[in-house]
Amino acid sequence: MPGHKGKGILGVEGLDLTEISGADSLFEANGIIAESESNASKLFGVNTYYSTEGSSLAIRAMLYLCLKYAKQNDKKPFILAGRNAHKTFISALGLLDFDVKWLYSSSKQGYLACNITAKQIDNTLSKLKRKPVAVFLTSPDYLGNVLDIESISRVCKKHGVLLLVDCAHGSYLRFLNSSLFPTDLGADMCCSSAHKTLPVLTGGAYLHVKEELLNEIDSSPKTAMSLFSSTSPSYLIMSSLDSVNAYLSDDYSQKLQSVITEIDKLKRRLKKAGYCLVGNEPLKVTIKSKQYGYTGNKIAKILEKSNVFCEFSDEDFVVMMCSSQTEKEDIKRLGDILLNIKKQTPLIAQSFRVVKPKRKMSIRKAITSKTEILPVENCDGRVLANLNISCPPAVQIVCSGEVIDKQTIEVLLYYGIKECIVVK
Which of 72, 173, 247, 377 is deepest in the core (most CB within 10 A)? Predict the structure, then answer.
């Protein structure tokens, strides 16, 4: 194996190896993969492990390590989490039978944002009779909001709970002039997707774990990852992760800052023209579109006609992600196209509070129950079984085990969700 024997129409088959002699093995690494991960660890300033299955694998591994930590410290598998968590986090809760208490925010950015503060977490933890083993947050989120991880980490330490961060969109934050990377700011573990903001093949990602936590858990990150991963990790993706180590070591911070400078210029141009921008993430441009007179989906279609493809759009937002590979000319062209769109009368935004569905059963019980598929309109009072919002953005309006009510149905229909898999 592989069956292509190094030959094929793609031209990359000769690099697509498997665990042959000298190639090392990802989850039992003691050769060149171990050396490469060591190089990555030095770059990120924390123990760093490769994933060829995105941050999804790293999130599952983080929760498994969190579960082991809980059992060693006589704690229940109970976690406090921002409601805008990725669907992988929710399915992992079900697989590992975690209980969860959701953190919401007063953000008016809908279900994609959850601008949680240190004070909010402090208040919540102070009121809980049963302390969670960890707090799980998403930063940056899909709209480009970066949380104050440093302040939040101090609160978590005060209450004796771990801090886990889904930093899938923020691998580059480590290399800013002042690092905003979660483990630099006090988080115990985080994941980051190299393929989202670094020049790495799709699927390349990292799990980052603080040394202090490793010393407290009787299981290794490699063991945790191997429980959920394919036994045939892609050597092409690993090679890509290895190659980016040299890229990050070679003036990457300067390249990154140069692109950020151009993006800042673009943002100023757009604001001057009347566009409403949200988020504070340096490499992301997020337009709150209805104030400019368009839906996000409409602006995305206009951009596509000029061969510009957005990361994500819905009725309210259009999200564009740049990287150090984005050319100055491309950023200027994006601005020119957007500024050529004539501002219209603002659309009256349909106002939805973020719904807070009641839980009827555990996530695990819901996803393993007998199910049926129903039109959303017929789901009032039913319990959601399987998650129904794909990636992007993979943030769920209602979670497995929760009751779908009339208000939730309105929100689901607003976002174009037509069916739900419910408990039978």
Answer: 173
